[in-house]
Design brief:
- The relative contact order is 0.08.
- Helix content is about 35%, strand content about 25%.
- With about 450 residues, the chain is α/β, with parallel strands linked by helices.
- The strands form 6 sheets. A 7-stranded mixed β-sheet has the order 3-1-2-4-5-6-7, sandwiched between helices.
- It is built from 14 helices and 22 strands.
- Among the domains are: about 140 residues, 3-Layer(aba) Sandwich (Rossmann fold); about 55 residues, Nucleic acid-binding proteins (OB fold (Dihydrolipoamide Acetyltransferase, E2P), Beta Barrel).
- α8 runs parallel beside α9, α11 runs parallel beside α12 and α12 packs parallel to α14.
- β19 and β20 form a beta hairpin.
Length: about 450
């Protein structure tokens, strides 16, 4: 199996009828990886079989991300690399699916001549029929967005090699319309899945040996489902899944600061198997910039939510997303971000330079006027600061005892395992008598800014 996971890419392939094979390569967020599992299931239902050899593939599908220009450029570079495949094996079908396909639509077929098939994130059920059209010599395209599609009836093909962790998509779409973001345009209207389908999927995963589930949504906390008997909130859903079994660890991503009420925090605190880790993107510490971003909260409101998390769940870690160099960002605006980072004391952060995206509100209304050099300088400053904050947080864990869910062999030594504790920190521990999928009680003995190291407690 070709693996590109270390570069933020994951790949797998599926054999097609008539001895053809489909290879799917996934870029971007966890939702995209979950979508690739749905695509695999759609194909499997048509009697396609999983294979691991990309060299045998007759169809190559690239599942794409559009969140930043860099993400799209990586896909374009990959398509250029794949053009040699068509020269080597005439008749090979190359398809682009997901967010980039939805954003560019027919334009992508014109710009990338080797592309034969374009498929948006709400159209995966049509993939088998589109492949037949392409095999008949036509270009295949379906980028219709849906107000109802959640793929709730599809059981995703889990291609994770460790069999320990899995994703469940509980909702699709987004209606926040942050001014810099293309997601509402590429994934459509927000809609939630029937909770019973989610709970049953989680139960089946646990029965099949999975120990950790991450619930996914563009704004997962806004999950809601109305039925005759009960209105289901995200807190209700978390509780129902937590009750499946205390050995099933539950995570979720991504939260929006405007949708993380105390009732949700109390639910997390109530159940030990709900991970003590919240990803809460802030994007900027400047209230002025947050207003321009249409984030619907202020510097002060965000920190109030951080205080609530730490008060109600004292052992909870918080990670975040930060953008530097947004339109008109002054040095004072940037220093507000630095100040917020220090006060929130994030354990981890995803940090990026602002990337203007076509057709967004920011592109239409604001000038991308921060020089690239200043964007880069500010980005490096917060990267350096986050390194310090991460190290300070990890040092506090030395001497602490925690339960680690083992999910892999350590990359540096086959004599050690790697896993994560409830706070979502990576822990390296001796193999002992454990196996992948076990919980181990570990005492932390040392750390780096990115990793904890521990010894097994009998």
């Amino acid at each position: 199996m070709q693996t590109l996971k270390s570069k933020g890419i994951q790949a797998f392939s599926i054999s097609v009828k008539k001895n053809k094979k489909i290879f799917i390569e996934t870029y971007g967020c966890q939702m995209n990886f979950s979508d690739s599992e749905i695509v695999a299931s759609v194909l499997s239902e048509k009697q396609f079989e999983i294979t691991t050899n990309i060299d045998e593939a007759g169809v190559i599908l690239i599942n794409t991300c559009s969140i930043r220009d860099h993400a799209e450029q990586r896909v374009r570079h990959r398509l250029t690399q794949l053009s040699h495949v068509k020269r080597k094996k005439p008749g090979t079908i190359i398809g682009v699916i997901g967010c980039m396909a939805e954003r560019l639509k027919e334009k992508l077929l014109e710009e990338e001549h080797m592309v034969d098939l374009i498929l948006g994130p709400d159209a995966y059920r049509s993939l088998p029929s589109l492949l037949e059209e392409v095999e008949a010599g036509q270009k295949g395209i379906n980028v219709l967005l849906s107000n109802e599609e959640t793929y709730a009836d599809i059981n995703p093909v889990r291609y994770s090699s460790n069999g320990v962790s899995a994703f469940i998509s509980i909702m699709r779409g987004c209606e926040n319309f942050c001014s810099y973001c293309v997601v509402p345009f590429t994934r459509g209207k927000e809609r939630s899945r029937d909770p019973e389908t989610i709970i049953n999927e989680a139960r089946n995963l646990f029965d099949n040996g999975y120990k950790e589930i991450t619930l996914l949504g563009q704004n997962v906390n806004s999950y809601k489902w109305k039925s005759v008997d009960k209105d289901f909130s995200f807190s209700d859903l978390l509780e129902k899944i937590a009750l499946i079994n205390p050995l099933l660890r539950l995570r979720f991503a991504t939260s929006h600061p405007k949708d993380i009420p105390d009732v949700l925090l109390h639910t997390i605190a109530k159940y030990p198997n709900i991970a003590r880790s919240v990803h809460l993107p802030v994007q900027s510490g400047s209230t002025r910039i947050l207003q321009m971003m249409n984030r619907k909260y202020t510097h002060e409101i965000y920190l109030e939510r951080i205080d609530a998390i730490k008060k109600i769940i004292p052992d909870c870690t918080v990670s975040t997303d930060i953008i530097t160099g947004f339109c008109s960002e002054t040095e004072d605006d940037f220093q507000e971000t630095v100040s917020l980072m220090k006060e929130a004391a994030f354990e981890f952060a995803y940090m990026f330079k602002y990337s203007e995206r076509p057709d967004t509100t920011a592109q239409k209304k604001f000038k991308d006027d921060i020089p690239e050099g200043i964007k880069t300088k500010r980005l490096q400053q917060i990267i350096d600061l986050q390194h310090v904050l991460s190290m300070e947080s990890n040092k506090k864990d030395i001497g602490r005892i925690c339960d680690v869910l083992i999910d892999n062999v350590s990359k540096r030594s086959k004599d050690f395992y790697s896993g994560r504790n409830s706070e979502n920190k990576v822990v390296i521990l001796p193999k002992g008598n454990f196996k992948i999928g076990d919980y181990a009680t570990v005492k932390i003995t040392r750390c780096t800014a990115a990793t904890l190291f521990g010894e097994i407690i009998n």
